[in-house]
Amino acid sequence: MPSQVRVIVRTKPTDNPSTAFRALSDNVVSITRPVAPRPGVASGDQPVAKEETLSFPVAAVLNNASQEAVYTTAASPMVESFLQGYNCTLMCFGQSGSGKTHTLFGGDAYPLRGCVPRALEVLFDVIRTSTERRYTVKITFVEVYGEQLFDLLGKNKSASAFSTNPKNANASRKNAHGNTPNDCGNKATVTIDGSGNAVLRGVEERLCATEAEALGTVFEGLQRRLSSPSYLNPNSSRSHAVLTLYLVSTSLLDSDALTHHSRFNFVDFAGSERATVDDGKQDVQMINRSIVMLEQVVLAMASSHPRHVPYRQSKLTMLLKNSLSGECFITLIATLWPQHEYLDATLSTLNFAKRMMRVESKPTQNTSMDTEAQVRMLQKQVNSLKSELRMQDQLAGRVAVPTAPLESD
Hints:
By secondary structure, the chain is of the alpha+beta class. The protein has nine helices and 20 strands. Helix 1 packs across helix 3 (about 115-130).
């Protein structure tokens, strides 16, 4: 059955919350704003200024919530589906500094772990304790900077792979260690094949046998991810990032020949900002342009009149094609910073979330037949039938007639 995108609002704690923003309940937030003057009417003829209240129903409102509460509400149900062979996508969208990266990856202290490390803990707990299935886990981690893709887990780093806009040296574009683009990952590509699926090439699929290996892989990618100071965030991510877990599980039971294949995408969107008040103008313009293109794709998907969805117009939307149009469960965490000066950004985030709620997907369990397990299962059935026939012969007093292969004269 079709499944709508699940939207969860998370608010960032602030000492100066806007009175225009309110959490009306556990699943409704609202913004009150002045009504714009009517065009073409003289100011003296305008009625007394009025206000309008915009309400946004969502799946859940997490106001000053802990990292554990966010994981339990947003990610935990998807991890269960992921283990059952369903593709899942968890996205964080919001203005710069609103807590997107913190929500997904967390902070230094153990209680501040984000959705990704908590999901890995649950996943490998299941793998360690399972007596019925065998699991294989792989990870990819890519970032989208402008119209270029980079593999954050790549080993070989080529300077030619990091050419940026020649009009902008991007001297301030660095990762967590202060490294420039040449140090931060291999160039990757994404294309759409004849079946309409997005295909990612030039990336390393890192095999992880333990939770420690998986966490180390994630940390490695985060250290290579590019960031620079902005007026809202001293360590602002200047790229969109997509971390993907690939899971294959095969049954250890002869009675089950199904293999499950599933993919879990964690998407950390870069935050939009006003270029007029930010030193990194080129970065901000590229981020805003890619978000506009993403919104165009969402608008086309949510339209009641089916039309062409412009996935190919940007690398970001091409990369997310399987996540948005595929057969998967989708949850969007809209991160808000409800201070008065950021009210426009808050409203923009909620409008995007509202459009996402109209997007439908069709989650489907991804299974295939394990040939060896199927042979074992059929052989077991044959042996069982033979035993049953021998028992019936004995009860009926019949003597089995020995047979031998025919020989030619």
